[in-house]
């Protein structure tokens, strides 16, 4: 079984991408909606939450885990790799590799939570691949709660997006990394603001490509994964907003179940 977790519902973008490539694989998802967002919390808290999320999936039979959260990927991924003896995938490296390949003018923008941006992880990894690339990062802390509240088409959301994206437009970036798996819910609005000349890098899409490559290269693990088409979705706070967003994103095919980590 494949386990996927996120600080909230943003990780459903990873689930959706995964379903498109591997519809038969059994999956279990956990969204920590009671404690979202993670991006405004300190490293120790983020690490503790990440360990609890991963343990939940492991105890329910996960054979591998996808960390569908940029904040956890930036702050807690090394600790997860040491703590859990299983394949664990994060969303930052795949997005970085795609962005470096995509940029033509060597100017890459990044939007993410404060914790992700403050970690400097994107800039560090991009510079490791190409030191001549300029990286311009801008925290966008309000986007996660707006997505969680299903305010995807509100005028206020568009105004906030404009404020976050304008500094990157001034830098003339030609590639923009959506450094949070919540952000693809706003992908069309972001694309409209940035214009057709800017390539958007969706970390959800890129991590699924990475997992597909890993499974192809590791047939023993691939054979081990159950393929009965069973999918489970758990959240730590089951709200009408969460149910509405999940159903909208999956055409009413998702049923969220409540589970408290406390």
Description:
It is a single chain. With 262 residues, this protein is of the alpha/beta class. The protein folds into two domains: 2-90 and 205-258, Rossmann fold (3-Layer(aba) Sandwich); 92-203, Rossmann fold (3-Layer(aba) Sandwich), CATH 3.40.50. It is 48% helix and 17% strand. It is built from 13 helices and ten strands. The chain has helices at residues 12-21, 43-59, 70-75, 77-83, 92-102, 114-119, 121-129, 143-148, 155-170, 187-194, 203-217, 219-224, 240-249; strands at residues 2-6, 27-31, 64-67, 88-89, 107-112, 134-139, 175-179, 199-202, 231-235, 256-258. β9 (231-235), α13 and β10 (256-258) form a beta-alpha-beta unit. It starts with a strand and ends with a strand. The mean pLDDT is 93.
Rounded to an integer in angstroms, the radius of gyration calculated over CA atoms is 17 Å
- Any low-confidence stretches, pLDDT <50, length ≥5? none
Assembly annotation? single chain
- Number of helical segments? 13
How many domains would you count in the coordinates? 2
Number-wise, the strands total 10
Biggest sheet strand line-up: 4-3-1-2-9-10
In a nutshell, what does this entry contain?
With 262 residues, the chain is α/β, with parallel strands linked by helices. It has helices at 12-21, 43-59, 70-75, 77-83, 92-102, 114-119, 121-129, 143-148, 155-170, 187-194, 203-217, 219-224, 240-249; strands at residues 2-6, 27-31, 64-67, 88-89, 107-112, 134-139, 175-179, 199-202, 231-235, 256-258.
